[in-house]
Amino acid sequence: MSKRAVILSIIFISLFSLDIEAQCAMCRAVLESEEGQSTAQGINDGIVYLMAIPYILVGGIGYIIYYKFFRAKSKA
Q1: Distances (CA, A) of 21 to 4, 25, 29, 46, 75
Q2: Distant-in-sequence, close-in-space partners of 31: CB < 8 Å, separation ≥ 6
Q3: Neighbour count for residue 45 (Cβ, 10 Å)
Q4: What pLDDT does 59 receive?
Q5: Whole-number Cα distances in Å, 28 to 8, 24, 40, 44, 54
Q6: Sign of dihedral through CA atoms 36, 42, 45, 47?
Q7: How far is the C-alpha of 47 from the C-alpha of 40, rounded, in Å?
Q8: If you average pLDDT over residues 51-69, what whole number do you get?
Q9: In the prediction, which pLDDT does 48 show?
Q10: Exposed, middle or buried: residue 57 (CB in 10 Å: 0-12, 13-18, 19+)?
Q11: End-to-end CA distance of the chain
């Protein structure tokens, strides 16, 4: 994949990202009865944060392995 295609893909994904709702049905039912909805928003943000961490870690480890593999190959 060319650098241009990667950059365009990143720009496209960044511009057209959607807001996500990460609450399960039970959490949503309990939290919708609240007046201010601030607790619901806090729980939703926490769920999204906890969901993103494993993807960031796996991506970072994949990048390190990729970098080390090609760096070792170019030195030989």
Answers
A1: 32, 11, 13, 11, 47
A2: 23, 37, 39, 40, 43
A3: 11
A4: 93
A5: 36, 6, 8, 9, 24
A6: negative
A7: 11
A8: 91
A9: 82
A10: exposed
A11: 24
Residue 51 has phi, psi (to 5 degrees) of -75, -30
Residue 72 to residue 68: CA distance in whole angstroms: 6
Report d(CA 63, CA 15) in Å as an integer: 24
Tokens 């950059």 belong to residue? 7
Tell me the residue length of the chain. Answer: 76
- Checking if the pLDDT of 32 tops 80, the result is no
Cα separation, 24 vs 28, in Å, equals 6
